[in-house]
Specification:
alpha+beta; 39% helix
Length: 93
């Protein structure tokens, strides 16, 4: 079993998708724990490979340079785009 399959199998077993959107640092620590590797370069490469394969969704935060990721156990299924917040004013006359 290769590293990517080990990480995906563990995340599926622990139902990581139910946690919602998490920072990259959470997934980095999880990969370190699962594979017992501590080279940041290898961890980032594994994460990017899983992201490219469709195992993660990316969400941009208000700060354009920050992202949160959500684990997707089935990469064939895509989530629908979230609707933007609609601002409106209610006045009581």
């Amino acid at each position: 079993m290769n590293a990517v399959n080990s990480v995906i199998g563990y995340m599926k077993h622990k139902n990581t998708e139910e946690l919602g959107f998490m920072k990259y640092s959470y997934f980095r620590k999880l990969i370190k724990y699962i594979l017992d590797i501590h080279r940041e370069y290898l961890i980032r490469k594994l994460f990017l490979k899983m992201f490219d394969d469709g195992y993660f969704y990316k969400k941009t935060l208000k700060n354009k340079s920050s992202y949160k990721y959500k684990f997707n156990p089935n990469p064939k299924i895509k989530i629908k785009e979230e609707k933007k917040d609609i601002n409106f004013i209610v006045s009581w006359d």
